[in-house]
Amino acid sequence: MKTIKSQNSEQTLHLGEYMGKKILEEIFQGVSIALNGELGAGKTTFVQGFAKGLGVSEKYYITSPTYNIINEYPAGVFTLCHLDLYRLESVDELETIGFDDLIDDTHIIVVEWPEILKRISFKFDIEINFKFDEHYNRIISITSGQPGSNLISKLFL
Ligand SMILES: Nc1ncnc2c1ncn2[C@@H]1O[C@H](COP(=O)(O)OP(=O)(O)O)[C@@H](O)[C@H]1O
Ligand SMILES: [Mg+2]
Fold first, then answer.
1. 82 Cβ inside 6 Å of ligand 1
2. Rounded to whole angstroms, how far apart are CA atoms 137 and 115?
3. Does the beta carbon of 36 sit less than 6 angstroms from any atom of ligand 1?
4. The pLDDT of residue 29
5. Of these four, 28, 89, 100, 142, which has the most CB atoms within 10 Å of its CB?
6. Each residue of 101-111: pLDDT tens digit?
7. Ligand 1 center from residue 46 Cα (angstroms)
8. Ligand 1, pocket-test mutation among 45, 50, 141, most atoms within 8 A of CB
9. pLDDT at 123
10. Among residues 100, 105, 115, 91, which one has the least CA distance to residue 38?
């Protein structure tokens, strides 16, 4: 597990950017990341930095896809898919949004409010938890979602 204290949004942006770059350099395959944490904890801020690290054009302004559920951005040979499943009411709706088709080697997916996917036993490659500390900093912990995976050690060499 990797734990980082982020004292401002720039630090969270930088963490996202670092991880985006590392995925391009070290992993070169589809990756799924769960973003867990309350409203305002910094999930979308992380995705903004992550997109930059993956080389998504700065012409896109990234916000939570609360109403459209999924936003896609070209990122070189990959497509970055940013999901917000807060409004999803049933697992059947996952089919409507074509979730299964996103799981391949061309998509990098980041999911806010991912709980509903745990109901179908979907296993993310990486789990990130955002928590507030008593000074309103964010404590960001990053773990592998797959037992025995060396993904986290590759990302934080
Ligand atoms: N350390 C920090 N990391 C991330 N965001 C922070 C931090 N400190 C303050 N903020 C602010 O908190 C808010 C986080 O919002 P957002 O990233 O949309 O959260 P979420 O997607 O988890 O609801 C932003 O307004 C951001 O500027
Ligand atoms: Mg958000």
1. no
2. 24
3. no
4. 87
5. 142
6. 999 999 999 99
7. 8
8. 45
9. 95
10. 115
| Nearest ligand to the C-alpha atom of residue 66 | 2
Residues of the chain below pLDDT 50: none
The pLDDT of residue 147 is: 86
Domains in the chain, please, with CATH? 2-155 (3.40.50.300)
Q: Which ligand is nearest to the CA of 48?
A: 1
Distance CA 56, CA 70 (A): 16
What is the structure's pLDDT at 133? Answer: 96
Q: In what order do the strands lie in the sheet with 138-144?
A: 2-6, 138-144, 126-132, 31-36, 107-112, 78-84, 70-75
pTM over 0.70: yes
Tell me, what's the pLDDT at 118?
87
* Ligand 1 neighbourhood includes 120 CB (under 6 angstroms): no
8 lines ligand 1 (CB under 6 A): yes
3-state secondary structure 12-77: HHHHHHHHHHHHHHHHCCCEEEEEECCCCCCHHHHHHHHHHHCCCCCCCCCCCCCCCCEEEEEECC
